[in-house]
Automatic annotation (TrEMBL):
This is SpoU rRNA methylase family protein. Keywords: Methyltransferase, S-adenosyl-L-methionine, Transferase. It holds the Pfam family SpoU_methylase. PANTHER family: TRNA/RRNA METHYLTRANSFERASE (PTHR42786), TRNA_RRNA METHYLTRANSFERASE SPOU TYPE DOMAIN-CONTAINING PROTEIN (PTHR42786:SF6). Belongs to the class IV-like SAM-binding methyltransferase superfamily. RNA methyltransferase TrmH family. GO terms for biological process: tRNA nucleoside ribose methylation. Residues 7-139 form the tRNA/rRNA methyltransferase SpoU type domain. Residues 150-181 are annotated as: Disordered. GO terms for molecular function: RNA binding; RNA methyltransferase activity. GO terms for cellular component: cytosol. It comes from Roseibium hamelinense.
């Protein structure tokens, strides 16, 4: 897949959720993980992160929304149930994205929401566990930006393989092909 992504959470307090979210981020190929205003005992990967993700992706701990230092061009995507949130199945994932989830039994802060470029919601009947929500969002990104055959309109697998991407020769800005290619 092109681009990069990160996953993080604001105000986490439970070690198991952090570990499970970090393990899922590692499994889905995240490029880094972060916390914002996390409890002091959550400044390192807990035992529930059985993949030992900090050995494979950086972990950043920011004390506040103001101290967050995302890479230039990275779009912040909040995962939150708000009136104007975009339903996840309809969301176009940015190539460079950092997904942030709220705390257990809480919501993203107003400061975090105002910093987000996009706010997305998972269309469920009620709130779900933060680690589960993160895994759903990462799966959706992987499904949307990965090179998979189109989903079948009937039960079962796709009827045809997705065609391989073929690189063409250089194209000038005018749209004309460069001679000799």
């Amino acid at each position: 897949m092109r681009g990069y992504f990160a996953v993080g959470a604001e105000g986490l307090s439970k070690r198991m959720n952090l570990g499970t979210l970090m393990r899922s981020a590692h499994a889905f190929g995240a490029n880094f993980f972060f916390t914002v205003d996390a409890a002091q005992n959550l400044r390192k990967a807990p035992a529930s992160d059985t993949s030992k993700s900090p050995g494979h992706l950086p972990l950043f701990n920011w004390d506040s929304v103001d101290t967050m230092d995302l890479p230039r061009g990275c779009q912040l995507v909040g995962i939150e149930l708000t009136e104007d949130s975009i339903d996840l199945p309809s969301f176009g994932h940015p190539l460079q994205a950092a997904y942030v989830l709220g705390p257990e039994r809480g919501s993203l802060s107003d400061e975090m929401l105002s910093r987000c470029d996009h706010v997305v919601k998972i269309p469920t009947k009620f709130c779900i566990n933060v680690a589960m929500a993160g895994a759903i969002v990462m799966y959706d990104r992987h499904r949307a930006l990965g090179r998979y055959a189109d989903r079948s309109t009937t039960a079962g697998g796709p009827k045809s393989e997705r065609p391989r991407h073929v690189s063409g020769g250089p194209v000038m800005r005018t749209g004309r092909k460069v001679p000799g290619t």
